[in-house]
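Q: My labmate handed me this sequence with no annotations at all. I'd like to see what the chain might look like in three dimensions before we decide whether it's worth expressing. Could you predict it?
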Amino acid sequence: MLNTFNGVLKKSSSDNPYLLAMSKEAVVDEIIQPNELGRIRYRGSVWNAKCLQEITIYPEEVVYVVGNDNITLIVDIVPHNNDNYPDQSQKKSPAATPLFFLGNFVLLLLMLL
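A: Here is what I predict for the chain of 113 residues:
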């Protein structure tokens, strides 16, 4: 069963939430050819890896872990957008409420007294 967390096939990190916390960079150790396994260095360990695209990835190239197939990691050459971890720079701060201003006003009065 193929698990991914990028929304392409199936969102799942229940098998190993530590491993699939989010799309992370890895470095290719052994060449990854189409329909064949290669090896990558990921989080301090060496893993079997395969790419779903019909491309060859050479050693020392940076790839991104996007899922797993049992103990084989699925990699891609571009990072995937992960809806579970949206970009925090686009997060809007909530509008200040009148109660917030009233509380600050009361606090300022208490400090002045």
